[in-house]
Amino acid sequence: MSTIARLSGLLALVAAIPVAAGCSVTSQASADEDPATNDAAVSAANQHCGPGKYNEALVHYKAAVAKAKQHKTDACMEDAGGSATVAEVASEAQKAVTACGAFQNVIKTSPWAGDLRAALSGTFIYPILTGDLDPSSSRSLSTALVGVTMFGPAPGVYGNVGRLTFEASGRGFMGILNLSDDGDVSWGRTDVRWSVEDRGGAVAIKVVAELDDATEKTYEYLLKKDAFLGADNYRLELQNDPDAPGAYQMFDTFPSECEA
Predict the structure, then answer these.
(1) Quick one: 60 exposed, middle or buried, by C-beta within 10 A (0-12, 13-18, 19+)?
(2) pLDDT at 6 exceeding the cut of 60
(3) What topology does CATH give the domain 140-252?
(4) Distance between alpha carbon 180 and the CA centroid of its chain, in Å?
C-alpha cells in the first residue's frame, strides 16, 4: 500500500472518531431526559411556581401518574406505594395542584399524564383538578357535570348500590344495583332530568326521576365536601325524602373499589 493511501486511511479514521463520540453523547443525553418534565406545560409550571413549590408538586404529580398506571392493572394490589384506587390517584394529583396551581394545566394537557386523565375521567374531581370546575359555582357546575358519574353507598362486597350519571342538556340517569336469587348482578336504569341551583350560599342539585308508570319523583340534593383516602370527596346528600331508596340517599365522588 502506498504512503498516500495509508495517510488517506488514517485521516478518514481520525475524522470518524469525533462523530462517533458525538453520537454517543447525544444518545446518552436523550436517555437521561425525564419524560415527566419534557413538556411545555411542565416547564411553564416551573417558571410560574419557582423551584421549591414546583419540585414539591412534581413529586406528587409523578406519584399520581404512577398510581394511575397501576390502576389500569390492579387498583387494589398493594405494593411499596400502597394501592391505587381512583381516590388515591386523585389524592396525589390534588397535592400537586395544591403545591403549584400551574399543574392544573399539566394534568389537563401533558401527554405524559394520559393515564392520569384516563383514571380520573368521568369523576367529579377531575374538572376541579384541571381548573374547569369551581364546585361553589352553580354556573360552572351546570357545564362541568356533563359526563360525570357519582356513586351511591357501598354497604357490602358488591360495592356501590346506586349511581347517578349527568348527561348533556340536563338529562341523565340513575340506577340501583339489583341482585337476583341466582347471584346475578345487574343495574336498573331510570331516566332523569337535572338542574343546579344556588340555595342560601349552598349548591343544590335537583334530580327529577321519570318513573315507569309515567309519574315523576323529585330528589333534592345539597353538595357537601369531606375527605376520602386523602382526596376531597364531594357528596350529594338527599334533603327532601328520607323514605327514598337507600341507594339514592347520597352520591359520592369516588367509586367503591377494594371492599370485596
Answers:
(1) buried
(2) no
(3) Lipocalin (2.40.128)
(4) 33
Angle between helices 86-99 and 40-74 (to 10 degrees): 160
Given a contact cutoff of 8 angstroms between Cβ atoms, the answer to whether 154 and 160 are in contact is yes
Strand ranges in the chain using DSSP code E only, listed in sequence order: 149-151, 162-166, 171-179, 185-187, 190-199, 202-210, 216-228, 231-238, 250-252
What's the grid cell of residue 249? 340517599
* CA-atom Rg of the chain in angstroms: 26
According to DSSP, the residues that pair with 235 across neighbouring strands are: 224, 252
**Residues with Cβ within 8 Å of residue 22, at least 6 apart in sequence:** none
Asked if 123 and 132 count as a contact pair (C-beta separation under 8 A), the reply is no
Task: Give tens-digit pLDDT for 23-55.
Answer: 444 433 343 478 888 889 999 999 999 999 999
29 φ/ψ angles, rounded to the nearest 5 degrees: -60, -40
Q: Scan for cell 436517555, then name that residue.
A: 31
* Number of residues that make up the chain: 260
Beta pairing partners, 210 = 216
Phi-psi label, residue 77: left if phi above 0, alpha if psi -120 to 50, beta otherwise: beta
Per-domain boundaries in the chain: 40-121, 140-252
